[in-house]
Amino acid sequence: MLLSSDLEKQKMKLGPHYQILYPSEGSSALSLGNDFGWLHYIWIDIGTPRVSFLVALDAGSDLLWVPCDCIQCAPLSSSYYSSLDKNLNEYNPSKSTSSKYLHCNHELCESGSKCNSPKQPCPYTINYETEDTSTSGLLVEDTLHLASGNAGSSNNSVQAPVIIGCGSKQSGGYLDGVAPDGLMGLGLGKVSVPSNLAKAGYVPDSFSLCFDDDDSGKLFFGDQGMANQQHTPFLPLEGNYVTYIIGVEASCVRDSCLMQTGFRTLVDSGSSFTYLPSLIYQRVVDEFDRQVNATKTSFEGYPFQCCYKSDSSTQLSKVPPLIFKFSMNNTFEVQDPTFVIYGSQGPVGFCLALQSTDGDIGTIGQNFMTGYRMVFDREKLKLGWSRSDCQDLSNGNSMPINPPDGGSANPLPATEQQNAPQGHGVPPAVAKKTPSKSSSTPVIELARGTYEVSLELLASVWPAMSYRAKLGKPFTEQKS
């Protein structure tokens, strides 16, 4: 987080052209299905000359890293992925005239004490809890190409220096298609892109994510949301604001609010499903089951415990919403908390898209964010939300989607391409920090959506564990 003096300097630098920024390739994001672990991705441009990368959006970690000077990286050829029509790129700092390595004596180099010389490039390693998954390499500063969202701007292109992980060696899930072209950490750490942009005075210290029902999305830096949006404060963890944790006061199924169902939860776009502490999870599941008028069943290969038979869209429309209550009468309503199960002839049932965690901190994943403009206001340390179709930024102002200056963005694959039978199947997982060391529950990161994917295909990829980052300083090597 910025110090108060940094915030004052930031406010002095802010101008009307830099209230909202988005990637130069456009603000649109998309979930790319089975090939890419069912996460939301966005095209970004890095370096001089600029090179494009398709990075996963992860509010649960800090570092923006891309495959770079590869020793051990995921395949980048489009032939490996059914969703792509062109190859992915590898970053080479030596070919970018705007790049420079961070030295070991840099304030953001956590591994500085292990360096032989203060002037050598700063190494980083991020380890993850399962499947020997990690990324490692050197920290670099280079240009991230952005555009201003303000109408009438005479110069709407922005080149912002940010910290980048030159990921030369990946392991585990990162070699099997999860974030093969890199990952953008949007967390509270000083190395994250939102932190870099705010400290330099480009935008207010805030950003927003919006995920629509069609699995598209939007990303905006500097967005502080609407004046009438609902909100709740972020909570510290062991005295420090290290990630986006909020406090739920009560959990409700439709109009039935359950006793003793308050809990702390991480808000994380890098988690495809939502997890509740085990005791609260059971109370919610029991009440949901009481209100659903359908035959209970189970689907082999799926992790959900609360599933029902149904081939009727009418029955699905009667599913009760889940509501989380916060302080000052703020509420977050999930109108459709289900995951629809498809067979060869269409829908065969649905499940409550919740899972249980043994820890005392839950996770609100991107499936419960659908239909909301989620505002991560880091300056005021609060989460804001308002209903949105991800097209209107505020009160009739259209969200900027296309690249500036009439440029053409990298095409995101059509939704239909996600269901192609060819290509490389990837376990639905992504790396992120976990706020609770006590949780040992296997977590499966699969995005919400009514994908026409066979039961056999999902059963074959679902048993994989998630790749959650260990707590601790992000650039120091940690023992597994």
From TrEMBL:
Residues 40-386 form the Peptidase A1 domain. Signal peptide: none annotated. Residues 426-443 have a biased composition (Low complexity). The active site is at D58, D268. Residues 393-444 are annotated as: Disordered. It is found in: Cell membrane. The keyword Metal-binding does not apply. GO terms for biological process: proteolysis. PROSITE patterns: PEPTIDASE_A1. Pfam families: TAXi_C, TAXi_N. It comes from the Eukaryota. The keyword Ubl conjugation does not apply. InterPro entries: Aspartic_peptidase_A1, PEPTIDASE_A1, Peptidase_aspartic_dom_sf, TAXi_C, TAXi_N. It is a lipid-anchor. GO terms for molecular function: aspartic-type endopeptidase activity. Keywords: Aspartyl protease, Cell membrane, Glycoprotein, Hydrolase, Lipoprotein, Membrane, Protease, Signal. SUPFAM superfamilies: Acid proteases (SSF50630). One of its GO terms (cellular component) is plasma membrane. Belongs to the peptidase A1 family. This is Aspartic protease. The lineage of its organism: Eukaryota, Viridiplantae, Streptophyta, Embryophyta, Tracheophyta.
